[in-house]
Design brief:
CATH class of the largest domain: Mainly Alpha
CATH architecture of the largest domain: Alpha Horseshoe
Order of helices and strands: HHHEEHHHHHHHHHHHHH
Radius of gyration: 36 Å
Number of domains: 2
Amino acid sequence: MRNKTFAAIIAVFGGSLGLHRFYLKQPMHGFFYLFLTFSSVGLFGLPAAAALGFIDAIMFLLMDQKKFDAKYNKGAQRQTQTRRTRTTRSSRTNQREQRYETRRPKKAPYQRMPRNVSVPKAAKKNPFKITGIKKYKEYEFDEAIEDFTKALEMSPRDVSLHFNLACAYSQTEQTDKSLYHLSKAVAFGFKDFEKIKTHDDLAYVRIQEEFEAFEENGFRIAETKTKKVEEEVEKQDDVLLEQLKRLVALREKGLITEKEYAEARRKLMD
């Protein structure tokens, strides 16, 4: 940023050499002042360049700051505006991240198994479990639920699968299903109750009225409710899988486009 007062001072004491014009990024004007000085042209009894420098100094001091900036600080103004725009965008981004921080997982939900829990060999080679975890990390919760559900068909007693499903249902605000799979995880050996009370991905479930009774019951839901939720989950999952199979068949036969398939699938998962 060029300063108009400093420019006026340079114009008074170095005007004959055109220093103030070089300072204002006007080299052609500066060379013109040098030419006037060395050609010994006079103006008002003074070397022409010195007299013009004195006039420039008065003009700078009388000039409005905004006009001075508009004329001599254009590039600096653009840089300042760019910095302000970047700062504003960064601030808005930070606000959005803070706003949704409680809804976004800070770390992968996949947890190590407690040492006292045996993991079936089939669970270690379960492809749907692997793809489900990948989709969960990418915040594709509905797709992750679909893969975790398929993985449970292969490993119905897998503690981590039930825990991951509970987290996914919590993220999609499905309280009953989340509590159901938490209860299943505990029934099959999950003992880290502190994780249930502090895990970020279970934040939604913890603020629901049902969670207090769930906790008091040893992180288990009542048996009658378990059967009811289990029947509802199985029914909904069977219907959903059947509808998804039909969509895949229609796409493979070319009866619907890829875009139509994606839109229909999204509506089913909502």
